[in-house]
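[Automated response] Your request has been received and processed.

Submitted sequence:
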Amino acid sequence: MTLLTRIGAACALTVTIAAGVAYAQSDVIKERQDGFQTMRKQLGAVKAAVEGGGPADAVIAPAEAMVAYAERIPTLFPAGSDSGDTKALASIWTDRAGFEAAASNFRQAAQELADTGRSGDMDAVAAAFGDVGKACGACHNDYRGK
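Generated structure:
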């Protein structure tokens, strides 16, 4: 194998690897965007139950879906997934502990909402829904661009 052939093979391998990494990054960006759109729908279902006066147990399934997604949030922002079609701010990676704490706060608020839904108390459900909104907003303020 000549030197030129080796250089060409190395270049081809480098391009292939780079393309694979870029594709993987776009996949995780799409996955997290799709997940957050689903969370938006779950929040809409909870809002409809709160504004409609119940029943309280109507919030359980959407809240549990939010809990499950919240547990995955940190894994959906791996290093290198900060470029492309994303509103993720660099602070996700530079303040990782804060970001993970914000995701945990969202998870806890969603769990409280699910638990409150089981109580049947719509006033408590409305308050818990407000706490979920605050947890979402806190994360968006620090870690999501406009």
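Summary generated for your ticket: The chain has a mean pLDDT of 87. The domain at 3-143 is CATH 1.20.120.10 (Four Helix Bundle (Hemerythrin (Met), subunit A)).
If you did not submit this request, please reply to this message.
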